[in-house]
Amino acid sequence: MNIITRLAGLLVMSALVLSACGSAAPSTSDANTAASPDELTGTVAISGAFALYPMMTVWTEEFSKLHPNVQFDVQGGGAGKGMTDMLSGSVDIGMISREIKPEETAKGAYWVAVTKDAVFPLISAKNPYASEILAKGMSKATFAKIFVTGEIKTWGEVIGKPEITDEIHVYTRSDAGGAGEMWAKFAGGKVQDDIKGIGVNGEPALVDTVTKDALGIGYSNLNSVFDVRGGTLVPNAIVPPIDVNDNGQADANELYKTAADAIKAVADGVYPSPPARFENLATNGKPTGVTLAFITWIVTDGQQFLSQAGYVPLTPEQQTESLGKLK
Question: Going residue by residue through the chain (327 aa), what tens digit of pLDDT does each one get?
Fold first, then answer.
């Protein structure tokens, strides 16, 4: 073999080696765009309680800033929808604004508490007896006789003036929601179906219906009754005071004219429970992967966003309990 032939062979071999090395190593641009092995990726689908929906939009936005490769699909629809969607596998997380039922646990529902809020009674600012209601308040027994037994039918009976015969228009949720169940339990019932009244589908529609009806009464979650960003009640809304101590008048700590008033009452335990309650996130079996990482973040770092959004953070003891269920 002459020297020219040998040199040609070496050149061919070198080219093959260089070609192989180039195909094994990513380009600079590929290396810069490749995800870190520790970076979270994936899509998390969530549905359920209207009560948690505003907070969930904040949580998903903040979590996405930390983990841009995680995508979220969040929908409202009520606690009942969230539970059904989660158990069927349509979503990864159900937002549940009530206690998880034994039959749901038996089907695989696994839940942790993530915050606390409350359901509030609601009347229209156009109610002709609003000033008297705000002065006297309404006892738990009165709410029970309006919403559950149906014994009280007129606003005159509410304010102690039987000569007034204006009929009370009672509204409730027609869809399954945690707010309805909590309000039923407060008023002496057990489940949402124990509440009498005209059914309205969805919380936004219920609030709109009640505030437009001068003789209407209903109930709704804190974040639907109050405009948390502005700190005031939503337009044309009044929260009739619950006369917790049954003294026949609305005391200062029973009046909720701002979101801050309501949040403080729930946090301090002044507002009765029910209708104050924990908000839960439920998964089908113990969460794993990116779903577990997201819920764990909510129970820890995500708590910092609750107060500004109108929710009550978990206490350290409650945080520890929820984290224990995630380990």
Answer: 433 333 334 333 333 333 333 333 333 223 333 345 468 999 999 999 999 999 999 999 999 999 999 999 999 999 999 999 999 999 999 999 999 999 999 999 999 999 999 999 999 999 999 999 999 999 999 999 999 999 999 999 999 999 999 999 999 999 998 999 999 999 999 999 999 999 999 999 999 999 999 999 999 999 999 988 889 999 999 999 999 999 999 999 999 999 999 999 999 999 999 999 999 999 999 999 999 999 999 999 999 999 888 899 999 999 999 999 999
Give the helix ranges, DSSP H, for 151-258: 155-159, 178-186, 203-212, 222-225
Q: Name the burial class of residue 319, with classes exposed (0-12), middle (13-18) and buried (19+) by CB atoms within 10 angstroms of its CB.
A: middle
Q: Are 181 and 98 in contact (CB under 8 A)?
A: yes
Residue ranges making up the domain that contains 142: 118-268
Pairwise CA distance, residues 190 & 184, whole Å: 6
CATH number at residue 220: 3.40.190.10
User: Based on the domain organization, do 241 and 132 belong to the same domain?
Assistant: yes
Per the domain annotation, does 260 fall within a domain? yes
Prior bond of 274 cis (ω within 30°) = yes
Same domain, 153 and 232: yes
126 neighbors 210 (Cβ within 8 angstroms): no
- Residue 234, strand partner residues: none
Answer for the pair 121, 239: CB distance below 8 angstroms, yes or no. yes
Instruction: Show which of 235, 268, 301 is a domain's final residue.
Output: 268
